[in-house]
Design brief:
This protein is α/β, with parallel strands linked by helices. The protein is built from ten helices and nine strands. The strands form two sheets. Strands 3-2-1-4-5-9-8 form a seven-stranded mixed beta sheet, with helices on both faces. It has a two-stranded parallel ribbon with strand order 6-7.
């Protein structure tokens, strides 16, 4: 970690009391701008962030494909996957699987070469869009890695309902997220939850909190699959008819 990175976190965490008292995100208070805006204006910080995400994604990917063989899925839509290589790794691990990366156009342009480099471009398609607004209906199952933890409950439910609308009645929804264990024992998930509050006003959730989101968005949580990484695979199936969602 460079000196400028230490300065970032010291300054953000220094505003934690303000965060607790007012509810304003600590990073926003300390820097007078949001975290994503800060990264856009600071190329060195943005590069460090991307490098950290790539390294973490590689570790999580290996753990995810080892933990679940994704049996029964024919076409998997990676929602907002960007260039984190999740869909690429899943295609490599499952020769019969087809994949779709759903993301913004500027992200997709860089992801195409990634699938080509991994030798799976022939089984991968790309659809551009904005997932809080709506999703491609071309897949039978959908995976969201590190997406829901960036959003408050209301926004998370909107995203999950968009997944439900896009799915048929027999697909699966897979979330790759941290799940905070019950009780007050120290855990990486609890520290990660505080980190999300400090930086982007996001939230890591318990199993019970995930179930509440799924109940509101038309899914039934069927199982949580631990991995050798801090992340778990949260598997859900459609619960409601689409008409119930309006």
């Amino acid at each position: 970690m460079g000196d400028y990175q230490r300065g970032e976190w010291h300054r953000a965490w220094g505003s934690l009391l303000h965060n607790v008292v007012t509810g304003d995100t600590a990073f926003n208070h300390g820097f007078e701008m949001g975290y994503w805006e800060y990264l856009a204006q600071n190329p060195q910080a943005h590069e460090a962030f991307n490098q950290a995400m790539s390294e973490n994604s590689a570790k999580v990917l290996a753990a995810v494909v080892e933990a679940d063989d994704f049996t029964g899925i024919e076409t998997l839509v990676d929602v907002g996957g960007g260039q984190r290589a999740l869909i690429s790794g899943m295609l490599k691990a499952n020769p019969t699987l087809r994949g779709i990366l759903f993301d913004q156009p500027n992200v997709i342009s860089g992801a195409r070469s990634m699938l080509q480099d991994e030798g799976v471009a022939g089984r991968g398609d790309f659809v551009s869009g904005d997932f809080p607004q709506g999703l491609s209906e071309n897949g039978d199952s959908y995976v969201l890695q590190w997406i829901i933890y960036d959003w408050d409950d209301e926004s998370a439910i909107t995203i999950l309902r968009n997944c439900r609308r896009a799915m048929g009645s027999s697909g699966k929804l897979l979330l790759v997220e941290r799940v905070i264990p019950p009780g007050n024992e120290p855990s990486e998930g609890e520290f990660g939850d505080i980190m999300m509050v400090v930086t982007v006003d996001g939230v890591d959730r318990t199993e019970s909190e995930f179930r509440t989101l799924f109940d509101e968005s038309g899914f039934d949580l069927t199982r949580i699959i631990p991995t050798k990484s801090p992340m778990s695979i949260i598997e859900c199936v459609p619960l409601w008819e689409i008409k119930v969602l309006g």
